[in-house]
Amino acid sequence: MARKVADCRDMPSDSGCTLTISGEENEVLDAATQHAVATHGHQDSAELREMIRSGLKDEAMA
Fold it and tell me: Which InterPro entries match (predicted)?
């Protein structure tokens, strides 16, 4: 299974957050959702999770 990446730099943000999260898709989705709620003030919702999921990218191989 390909690892996925969520990168805050790909999302519009006033804070200029540079956090990048990588791992298996469900791990990244959960961690990125928790980060969005705790750091950026979003509400955990199906819409937020779908927005995050649609922005995930495959991790580049080293």
Answer: DUF1059
Residue 55 burial (C-beta neighbours within 10 Å; 0-12, 13-18, 19+): middle
Say how many domains are in the chain.
1
Write out the two tokens for 13.
């943000």
Q: What is the 3-class SS of 32-51, one letter each residue?
A: HHHHHHHHHCCCCCHHHHHH
**What would the pLDDT profile of 19-30 be if each residue is shown by its tens digit?**
999 999 999 999
